[in-house]
Amino acid sequence: MIFLFFVLAAVPFYPESPRHLAKQGKLDEARDILLRCRVDPDPIKIDYEMEGIKEALRLEATSAAHSYYSMLFTKDKFHTRRRIILGGGVQVMQKFTGIDFIATYAPEMFTLSGFSGDEPALLAGGNFISYTASLALAIWLSDRVGRRKLMLSGSFLMGIVLIVGAVLSHEVLKYTDTDPAKSKQLGAGVVTVLYLYTVLYGSTWLTTCWVYPTEVFPLATRAKGTALATVAFSLAGGVINEIVPYLISAIDFYVFVLFALLNFAILVPVYLFYIETANRDLEDMDLLFSSESPFAWRAERQFADLKARNCGGLAAHEKMEDVKTDLA
Does the structure show a pLDDT above 80 at 194? Predict the structure, then answer.
């Protein structure tokens, strides 16, 4: 509760979103926030961004999908339903990567690796420290690499690591009775695999699964869309956490193989349907999702064509500003 009081004390000092201010008709305040937030606040680019925000608000006002029901069951020109599937899907898939079976049930996994007594709990604690530390890498990679590439590379590498973990776990069980010393050495290999897996997840999926849903929705439905994605996260987490203990009891080290296969399966929907959102304006999302095709590469192609046309508008705007400056 003490930390919640810190949050309550800090929130009043945070500025409102410029898009929210523009929606409330406070255009001057919105422009001021944009100027303060940009590293290089070029007034011409800020004016152009404000025009984009106002145009997005005008377009979104024509959409019929504003309630939870209409977002889920009404087809609109902004393809809000598709965005809900993507936003909720990324939250479900991040649970299927297997992070809960390692993070939540880490002591059990380290016990399967041949450790006993207090060792599994201590190793689990160390795993959480590396998990937290990997967030620094995630912050650095998120915009430089992009959401889509982080999801693809993360799932592929985690799948490979889990396959290695399955092989080592099999060997641990094989030598438990006949050669305890060798079993302990192999168990150390399993620990290394679990630590590496956690770092891979923390530096790729952990940030992406929370950032992506906030970026894909139109302004009018962003809060509701993000809420639905969070519901998907909670439901998937509940299911995974309920079944993992039974899986560990039933199939032992094959649980590594199961989640490795799920990671490889995740590569398919991410490659096919997930559009890159990094380093793009939120208003660009409406252009990206204006395509009738759900496939990412077709949406990107159409988006490039639309942006090429719009760039002419920015060039004309800058030229007009130059003319005004010369006249002044």
Answer: yes
pLDDT of 64 > 80? The answer is no
Calpha distance 143→93 (Å, rounded): 21
Per-residue CA distances from 13 to 23, 47, 194, 310 (Å): 21, 25, 40, 36
Residue 117 backbone class (left: φ over 0; alpha: ψ -120 to 50; beta: rest): left
Q: For the chain, what are the domain ranges?
A: 71-273
This prediction's pTM: 0.78
Architecture field, domain 71-273 = Up-down Bundle (1.20)
Is 82's pLDDT higher than 80? yes
Q: How confident is the model at residue 65 (pLDDT cuts 50, 70, 90)?
A: low
- For 83-90, what is the mean pLDDT? 92
Query: Mean of the pLDDT values across residues 82-106?
Result: 88
DSSP state of 117: T
| pLDDT of the residue at 25 | 87
Query: What is the C-alpha to C-alpha distance for residues 306 and 236, in angstroms, rounded to an integer?
Result: 37
- ∠ at Cα 294 (290, 296), nearest 5°? 90
- The structure tokens listed for 125 are 């604690």
The 10 Å CB-count burial string (b at 16+, else e) for 243-264 is ebeebbeeeebebbbbbbebbb
Tokens 């992406």 map to which residue?
Answer: 208
pLDDT tens-place string over residues 279-320: 887 777 877 888 888 898 888 888 888 777 766 555 544 544
Evaluate whether 31 touches 45 at the Cβ level (below 8 Å). Answer: no
Q: Provide the mean pLDDT of the chain.
A: 83
Helix H or strand E encompassing 150: helix 147-175
Q: What are the C-alpha distances in Å from 218 to residues 50, 71, 298?
A: 16, 11, 20
